[in-house]
Amino acid sequence: MPEQFVTFSFWDWQIGTAGDAANLAKQIKAMGYNGADITFRWTRLEYTRGDYGFRYIDAILDAFAEEDLFLSTSLMFWSIGLPWAEEIEWQKLPDGRIYEFSGRGASPSLSDPDTVKAMTDAFDAFSAHVYERYGDRLFRMHARTSQYGELEYFCDAGGVLDYGEPAIAAF
Fold first, then answer.
1. Global confidence as pTM
2. Among 2, 53, 94, 165, whose Cα sits 20 to 30 Å from the Cα of 28?
3. CB-based contact 66:83 (threshold 8 Å)
């Protein structure tokens, strides 16, 4: 592993196909980058609850690994595109509405044990697979929960955090 990583960041929606990933990988390698930071949305891993699929994820990561780039991967826990989103407890506003940010969907409630279990199971599957397949190229891995794609538990609706029943009960 190099002492320093210089990465270019992508979200999965910016990479439609393995061919797109291969072209991007070649371009960033030619610009002198030695890594790629790629965030995958929950639906890319678990389109059907409990059924983890890696075909898309592997196709994208393979393209970057083939260019000898190091990998940083993230799993983004958003509701957008998740067909079984109604099974998850999402952050809520004081009036009971699910908080959604600018078309990016909702963020999960970290106060609901069933939601945390679903997230933990998904991240366990994601991290085990990615580490096993790309461990020699992998230098960082994240679970992301906020609408901004960061690592914190956050809501920008007037300083509100989460008014869902599990959050209130936990408080």
1. 0.85
2. 53
3. no
